[in-house]
Write a structure and sequence with these properties.
10% strand; 8 strands; 341 residues; homodimer; 15 helices
Chain lengths: 341, 341
Amino acid sequence: MIIDCHGHYTTAPRALDDWRNAQVAALKDPARGPKASDLKISDDELRESIAANQLKLMKQRGSDLTIFSPRASFMAHHIGDFNTSSTWAAICNELCHRVAKLFPENFIGAAMLPQSPGVDPRTCIPELERCVREYRFVGINLNPDPSGGHWKEPPLSDRHWYPIYEKMVEYDIPAMIHVSTSCNACFHTTGAHYINADTTAFMQLLQGDLFKAFPTLRFVIPHGGGAAPYHWGRYRGLAQELKKPLLTEHLLNNVFFDTCVYHQPGIDLLTKVLPLGNILFASEMIGAVRGIDPETGHHYDDTRRYIEALRLSPLQAGQIYEGNARRVYPRLTAALQQRRN
Amino acid sequence: MIIDCHGHYTTAPRALDDWRNAQVAALKDPARGPKASDLKISDDELRESIAANQLKLMKQRGSDLTIFSPRASFMAHHIGDFNTSSTWAAICNELCHRVAKLFPENFIGAAMLPQSPGVDPRTCIPELERCVREYRFVGINLNPDPSGGHWKEPPLSDRHWYPIYEKMVEYDIPAMIHVSTSCNACFHTTGAHYINADTTAFMQLLQGDLFKAFPTLRFVIPHGGGAAPYHWGRYRGLAQELKKPLLTEHLLNNVFFDTCVYHQPGIDLLTKVLPLGNILFASEMIGAVRGIDPETGHHYDDTRRYIEALRLSPLQAGQIYEGNARRVYPRLTAALQQRRN
């Protein structure tokens, strides 16, 4: 089985955009905005939006199951206040849940949280609980910068975030660290903000001692860990300067990296530098980079080709494709068994 | 000849710190602060600070000449106003000039600019001119984020920066894109802010069309280009999405990368992904990562070892070690000839 741990619902029917636009247009007077119940998307529309897109490509490329969360760039936690994000997160999570119900063999949900800049993360707990208990979601996406490129929240090692971590530990679910749209003109969303956030999160975890407080807490850093694997020597050296243990001990029991790196030399480096047990297969398809690489004739985000080219043993490939995901997302196995019963 | 294009004066005598501390302590009433002339550092003190540190390591590691600029993390452009930065930059640049005069075979200057958040970069021109004309400096360091981690200036492709670019073109000098200390708790200075800035700058240049306006403008992106080479497929794909030419044409006549990547797999990737003509040898020694790598028994920042391990042809190695630096910093050759005459 090939599990893609990083997919977003980037192809939702147009009605979702329209609803969000109406919500944003009414920010100053939310009473005049749309209600959640105003959004009408039929099962057929959902089926079509998936079958013609993600599912088609999954079949072509040979992946079986995608851990599926709301479109990252549309989370836009910087818009409005907690109530804005709360309604929006509930709608987006429910759509992912419906997709997972329609395609139980192929999709399983991960939640976006109703974060809002400057708001206590504790406010996200009810939505998180709902997604795990009612929807059987297996993970969450945690945005370390709900301001959208202004970076005003404390680092991930700060107690500010502990309420989320306590719930993650209780439910035994991991968080993918994933920012949303940049509203800072300096940072292109998918070309700078995403990658910077990955690097930033990794360094925040390196500086802190979070996993002493939460030994079972698990994070997935997407986009191949930002710059971290490329600069692995720098990070090993900085850990030394900061009198931290070796990174293997300090971070690698708790921090995992996906394979959303869109060329062979990048995947070669990732799998050379990091233990294979810390690498989870992913493509972020259909996402930021949708084109065909003229150098290979294949889609940039067809990351399975890069993994195949590594010529790993079946056991090693199985770790990256399936075993690590089942270990990092233990609710996945439970949910799949339940679905089949 | 082996040229290290990225060295900072991180070992300046203590008197420099004391002067800066006094300046910062008097920010509210600069008249009570120190004058530039209050700083007394003898030639012997300068000699000692270099001979026992950078020069010793250069000799051990076999590099000949370092392009030498003020300590990057101490530029701290976010402190005070333009006058604060102006006096501070003048002092720091003069010290680098004195080092280059004391060790003319081994050091040549690159300038820090007296940038200040929200201040027109045009104000930096007099210091830039002084450093090129009087000190024969061969390049500058340009800080894309003088706020120190809050990213409030426009992207590098914006007209905001054109006055600097016009001077760079006039003098035929490149800029290394280099931020300074982060005063944003989210960003560790050398583990996140530096690397993010490199990635951000690269993406800003990718999004823009700056080199249409300035075809001879040249930038060096330090720290191996941040995350850019590791995600080269992503950037090639994003350029496609943005309808830009191939990166080779769009950026690689004007954008260069140094070799401050502190492990072999990183250097392997850098030299595999980028044309060798775009890679300049550098170590940023003595800098952020000063320790010995337990995996190799050698200093992390002894980057020459990684280049040597590539087993390049003499011609290829010569490009990285010398030829590219002479091409990107044409005033270097002129200055060296003049010194020898």
